[in-house]
Amino acid sequence: MHSLKIKDLSVCIDNKIILNNFNLEIKSGEVHAIMGPNGAGKSTLSKVIMGDENYKVINGDILFDDVSILNMSVDERSHLGIFLAMQSPMEIEGVSNADFLRTAVFSKDQDNFKLLSFIKELENTADKLKINRDFIHRGVNEGFSGGERKKNEVLQMYMLKPKIVLLDEIDSGLDVDSLKIVGQNITSYQKDSKCAILVITHYQRLLDYIKPDFVHIMVNGTIVKSGDSSLVKEIEKNGYEKVEQKSEITSTCIVKDILNNE
Amino acid sequence: MNKILIDKEVIEQKIVSNKIVVESVPCASFFGITKVKIKVLKSCNLWIDYILDDNRLDVTIDINDKVTLNLYEYKKGDKGKVRCTFNIGEKSIVNIEKFGEVKNIKEMIITNLNGSGATFNYNFKSICCEKETYDFVIRHNCLKTVSNIKNNAVNILDGKISFQVSSYVPNKMKECVVNQYNRIINLTDNKCEIRPNLYIDEYDVVANHSALIGGFNTDEIFYLQSRGLSKEEANKLLITGFLLSDLNSKILTNKIKKKIKRFWR
C-alpha cells in the first residue's frame, strides 16, 4: 500500500503563485480526477509532484509513503514509482524508443534487468496498445502524431511499472478509437498493479473508461470542490463558472496570507 | 567498398571497381601540400580515411553526371589543414557522412553544384576538444540544385569550434533548395561560433538556415529524468542521439559511440 500526500502546498514561478495551500491524498488502488478551467494549475501540480525545477515550492510538503520527496531529484522520484504521462511529450532527436526505454528500465531495475524479457514485454505491450512495432525503433516521439505520442506515454508507463501514475491530459489529441485503447489499457494496468492514478482532464469522455473514485475541481491553484463521479456530469452541464465565483474570495485571502508569511 | 587512405605522403588505395579514378601529386612539388584528385565515374560508395600530422591536404572530387556517390569520411590526428573541393555534375547526388577526431583542424569545403539537379547532402559530426574551424562555400551554379548542410558538434574540455557556412545562389538560378542546419552543444565556457550565410540573388529559391549554440533543452532533460534516468544518463543519451542522428554508416556510428564512451561513462 502506497500513498502520495500533498500538504498545504504552495508553488510559484516568476513570483506568481500557481498553487496555493493545495491539499490532496492519493492511495494505492484509488483513481482521482482533477478538473478545472485553463490556468487553474493542474499541469503545474503534476510537474511539481515530479520535481520540475522551474517551479519553486514556497510552502507545504509532498510525501510519498509519509517521507518527504521535496529534496529528491526527478529521477529519484521516478525510482520511487511516480510516473508522469505528459500533456506534450518531448521529441528526442536520434534516440530510439527502445534505447531510451532500455536505459530507463535498466536504471530502475539494475541487476534484475534481463534484456530478452525486456524486448518481449516491450513488443507485447506495443501490440496491446496497437502501436506498430516499427515505432519502437524510431526516435522518441520523432514524427509521431499527437495520438501516437500519448500511446507511447502509456507504453512507457507499462514498462516502468509505477506505483503512482499522473496523467496530464492524456486524452488530448486522441481520436475515438485511440482514446478507447488508451483508456482501457490504463484501467487494465491499474487493476493489475493496484497503482494509484491521478487523472487531469477537461472532458468526461476519458473518465468513461478510467472511472474515478474521487473528482476534484481545481480553481486558482486549489481544490474548491470534491465529490464522486457525479461531479463530472455537473461540470459538463453547468461549467466552472459557479465554482469559480465561490473560490475567488477564498483564494485571494490565501494568496495574501502566503505572501505575508514569505 | 572502395577505400582510400590519405596520409602525409602515402596514399593507399583499395578501389574495388572501375568506377573511381584516383590521381595524386607528390607533396614535395607543391610546398608541402598533398594534392589528390578523385574522379567518380559511376555510382558507388567510397570511404576516405585521413591521417593528419601537421600536414596540408588539397583534395578535389569530381563527380560525373547522373552519378550517386555515398561518401564516408573519417579524419584523425593532431593537427592539419584540409581543403576539399566537390565538383558535382548534372543530376548527380553526393551524400556525405563524416566524423573527425583531429585535435586542431582547419578545413575548407568548397562545393560547386555545376549541373542542373545536382544535390549535395552533408552530415558532419564532431566532439571538439581543442580547436576546429570549418568554412563552407556552396555555389549553386545551376538551376534546380540542392544543398543540405548539417553540422552537429559537441564542444568539451578546451574545445573551440566554429562553422562558417556560406551558400551562394546567383541570379537566374531558379528552383534551388538551400538548407543549413548547424548546432553546437557547448559544454564549456569557451566561445563557439556559427555563421550561417545565405547569399541569394534570386527570388525563386527555398532557403532555410539555423544556428544553435547552447546546451540541451531543460524540458528534454526533465522528460528523460522523469523516466528514471539520472542527469548524467540523460545528457549522455541526448548527446548520443544528437551525434548519431541520420547516420547510416555503422563504422562511423561505432567510432562516435566509442568516443562518447570515453568522455561520458
Question: Can you offer a commentary on this structure?
Answer:
The complex is a heterodimer of chains A (262) and B (265). Chain A has 262 residues and is of the alpha/beta class. Chain A has one domain: P-loop containing nucleotide triphosphate hydrolases (Rossmann fold). Chain A has helices at 42-50, 74-80, 97-109, 115-128, 146-160, 176-193, 204-207, 230-238, 241-261; strands at 3-13, 16-27, 31-35, 56-64, 67-68, 82-85, 92-96, 139-140, 164-168, 196-200, 214-219, 222-227. In chain A, the strands form three sheets. A six-stranded mixed sheet of chain A has the order 6-9-10-3-11-12, sandwiched between helices. In chain A, strand 11 (214-219) and strand 12 (222-227) form a beta hairpin. The two termini of chain A are 36 Å apart. The relative contact order of chain A is 0.18. Chain B is mainly β. Chain B folds into two domains: 2-215, no CATH class; 217-265, no CATH class. In chain B, 14% of the residues lie in helices and 58% in strands. Chain B has three helices and 14 strands. In chain B, strands 1, 2, 3, 4, 5, 6, 7, 8, 9, 10, 11, 12, 13 and 14 form a 14-stranded mixed sheet that branches. In chain B, helix 1 crosses helix 2 (231-244) and helix 2 runs antiparallel to helix 3 (250-263). The A-B interface holds A 50-54, 73-75, 77-79, 83-84, 86, 89-90, 92-95, 99-101, 103-105, 107-108, 139, 156, 160 and B 217-220, 222-231, 233, 237-238, 240-246.
